[in-house]
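Translate sequence into structure tokens.
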Amino acid sequence: MNENGFDDVYQLDGGVINYGIKRGQGNWEGKCFVFDDRGAIEIDTKKQDIKYSQCNICFVPCENNQTCRVCNKEYLMCADCDPLMENTCSKFCRNLEKMKEEKIKSNKEYQELKAREASN
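Result follows.
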């Protein structure tokens, strides 16, 4: 940041987690996002054993457990991504469900066409 013209640049000695250990949870709001499989952790070291995860799609910290309506797999999805994925765990399941729906529609249209032809 100094190279980009910022003069008042400070860095936490030991990082955010060390800050939490020294200063305590009272000076921190929310969770700390970490770039590993934990997703987000508490600053309070007593609570760091608790596993937090992230949305299957956008990877923001998320604790919203769901069950896929296609494959019944449990997954995590944030409130922003869930409507886009139509209550499914992945693009694969969402597309599979759409294909099933299209097949049902085309079968119904075929049956209606056959019924019209038979009545003529």
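Note: The helical segments are 15-23, 82-85, 91-119.
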